[in-house]
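Training component of the fellowship. As part of building independent skills, the fellow (R.M.) carried out the full modelling exercise for a liganded target. The chosen ligand was FE2/S2 (inorganic) cluster. The inputs are recorded below so that the supervisory panel can assess the work.
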Amino acid sequence: MASQIAMVLLSLDSEEVGSLKEGVNLKKNPEDGKCYIIYKSNTGLKACKNQCKHQGGLFIKDIEDLDGRTVKCTKHNWKLNVSTMKYVNPPDSFLQDELEVEILDDGGLQLVELNPMDPWLADPREPLELQEGEVKVCIQLFSHYPTLKVLSERRPDVPIYVGDTVRPVFWYLEQSRVKLTNINIVPFGVWQDIDEHLRFMILMDGVHPEMDTCIIVEYKGHMILNTVDCTRPNGGKLPLNVDLMLSDFAGGASGFPMTFYGGKYSDSWKAEFVKNERKKLLNYKAQLVKSLKPRIYCPFAGYFVEAHPSDRYIKDTNTKNSAEDLNALINKHAPDIKTWTPKPGAVLDLGLALRDPTNSEAITNPPASAKIYKDSWDFDLYVDELNSAITSEIFKHRSWIQFYYTWAGFQNYNLVVRVIETDDDFEPLTDGYDYLVDFMDLSFPSKRPDREHCYVEVRHCEAPGKQLSAA
Ligand code: FES
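Fellow's submitted model of the complex:
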């Protein structure tokens, strides 16, 4: 079976993107003559193939539709509302498959399709009954180099499987002194057999196919889906009715907008923003779970905290969703789905839980006194690393700054950034760096340009934690 790939169906450059009109845009790929629909609104872009679900007819704009959201098939007049991707005629019939719209750094865009769409349907297996104790699920979290290092010291040959992402999953393993000797890169969307009953499949993320992945593990025909870290796992196409679904719940990992000051970034604006984002994320996750109908759902990733003293403000203001919040919402909207909030050390017996979701013996909880969050941290590991980076050769040469921005390649954007090197109290250092970058043409002017532009000041101190101001 062919492995899963992300196929670019249509590319537009920044000029073509700029000339997209509000509402329906019909586009043709000049190379293969295939047609696409791009719908532009104030909430962004949506896209699909210009191909009717009925018998593959071509859509044209529907002149009777005054809202400019509907297209009409030239074959038998089916109508599709591209703002929702639902067919309106016949009513309540089909959904059009959406394509991923990937915005490129240079302002262009690509329409991307993940192929094949439902690879887990290949070679299906009848579920066999699981015995008590046969499959036990407990959550172990590790993703950072220090934990990988501990793992590699205990068992360097532990088999690790990663998807064949364009960007390697493990960067600089050698330099970080992590010695793992059994890393296997596997193709996307193909079952990988571990033994007669156990297999797994890695799927791409629709938004970041170059680096994010999700995974389906199947044992005796029972599927466990883990979508952690994905923005839009497998482009939104996921197996229905899996036995156990695991995902993240918290959000807020970027710390935005708590690191911004000035301009519109008042405390009340930030509080309102974070509140809305939390609500949106919670609803999105709950809807996703409801639509996929797993037998059991477990939110497990997102237990993180901005622990360093210099990040105190972010910790206090960047409120995050809790696993309990999400499960409560799911219980309300989809009472048939059993939810599980795993405590550290808790174990779920999948066989028991599937046979009778109300069986309290299916879950073994740790003693009530078990700690959920750490209360002490070894910051030196990270701070030393950062401090040694500060004295790096690279910062001694002014020209490396320009080299860096040119290498990053982000431009054609009406933004001017001023970067100021500061002490721990964010006061500028007398001999520190202080420069402007104009991202319009990637130049380094000595004063802000006369044209109207967005402007951000970045104050960067040597301690971990950063502060920005914007105008
Ligand atoms: S092919 Fe589109 S309506 Fe029949």
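The panel noted the following from the submitted structure. Residues 464-471 have pLDDT under 50 and may be disordered. The longest helix spans residues 267-292.
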